[in-house]
């Protein structure tokens, strides 16, 4: 699940006169007024005003305020006094009083452009955006070269959604003051919102050139660079923003998102935690930490993070949904369904949540969501990806209701759309199988046991062939660590090839396994490792390979009915499913002839029909001591994040055997190819 992104750019407002916070109550100002002058005679009105302005400019707000209020009490009418006193009132948060004082300055001197500017700022803070716009325009009318007024007008126009006009205002401010860093920065924000990303980048870089210590500009540049796909540069920008402002919570947060996208999950976790430390009540940070923790396999911690996000924002639909996914992976199916229902209640058109709940459907109560799922309106203005989720969800519900023909219709719609989004890569997969088969024929055999390496068990075969059930059975052994669908074998092989064989392939793989577990046995369920079977058998001496397979039509149907999270694009083509199935079957047949003692055949149909016999045979082949717990893998408390995470929570059963017969018409393209082979010519009989 993608992370949320905090993309709100930082904007700055400029006033003509610098203001300071005031640590006193206004009631004290009227007492004990003393006026400091350099002349022994009574000071003039102008001298007092100049002294007040001097105090104000020096940051001595208390003394400045006393003098301003002295004038007001004496009913002296001077526009500068009311204007500057308005600034002080604004800094105290007394916006209504500040507005009155500033309007009084304008009443005294209607052509005082600076007062119109400051009134615009006050009105903006009061939420009176249209009035603020008028004030800024009046300031510009009185002083067309007033850069700050053009700049602040740009901010208001942006807030009002008038982006093109805002762009013109910022450009005018820059024309009048080319070194106006904040104007360049906000112009970058507008250009980004208008989709002019390259121009926006130039504006941000100009801002940084003018003010290298402008943390907000580095942050905004990072946001833009991420959108441009320049992740490494975005990382550097966020890090610079943090260097300049270590407590910049949004920068830590977005740095975490970038680091996740770059695959630096541990660093990303640290960044998210830092953002939370600075800003503990920010629900999005807790949510994104949950996403990271799930990817790191820390499901219990992820659950806590999602729950915290929901505590802070009860209507956070994404958090409810992702909590449901975690609970499903942890086997808490009833709670998972409730979380998905909550997500849908908050967000009735939440496509992926419908898909997830269709996989669970633990309860038949209050299924209002099903009416919503099958409504015509739910597909309106939906992306292709969301339409795929809706079609698969409908197919799943209809399948459970045994309306197989209608389910077939939606399965075809879903898979046709998936192929339109991302075509099948079956040819690439087939070519890889052949290349690795040729590689396995090279005379390289490693008989040397890798040092300090656990026993490696590779579970290979087609998706949806019983591999998750097998993994659950094996991990009932307390000495087994199930690594899941991990890609460390291919990573080790690529490193081995780059090393020009100076390295030991088995040791490279063993080191990666040791990074994940200290247990004595490790199962690797990356099913496409079947392509590496020959290489495993020849170069990893302590390896055992278990090949999972089942009736091809049941297997192909199950693949076609599954919306895989990533990869397996061929799964949306029945023809390509058959091609891949037959290829892996042929490859494995040849490998079994060469490495009989290393490979165990596990037929899923036999396993679920006679688990006692089949599991005992497997445990014996592995050389393990028999325990009855192997017959109850559904009691395994481990987390499961594969497509079988719901089914594996039920006792072993044979319900899925022969399921293809319910979809015989839909499967015709697959049946035609299979029946042309000698092995499967009678498969439908």
From TrEMBL:
Keywords: TPR repeat. Gene3D superfamilies: P-loop containing nucleotide triphosphate hydrolases, Tetratricopeptide repeat domain. PROSITE patterns: TPR, TPR_REGION. InterPro entries: P-loop_NTPase, TMTC_O-mannosyltransferase, TPR-like_helical_dom_sf, TPR_rpt. The keyword Disulfide bond does not apply. It comes from the Bacteria. GO terms for biological process: protein O-linked glycosylation via mannose. TPR repeats lie at residues 79-112, 113-146, 147-180, 181-214, 215-248, 249-282, 283-316, 317-350. GO terms for molecular function: mannosyltransferase activity. SUPFAM superfamilies: P-loop containing nucleoside triphosphate hydrolases, TPR-like. This is TPR repeat. It comes from Prochlorococcus marinus (strain NATL2A).
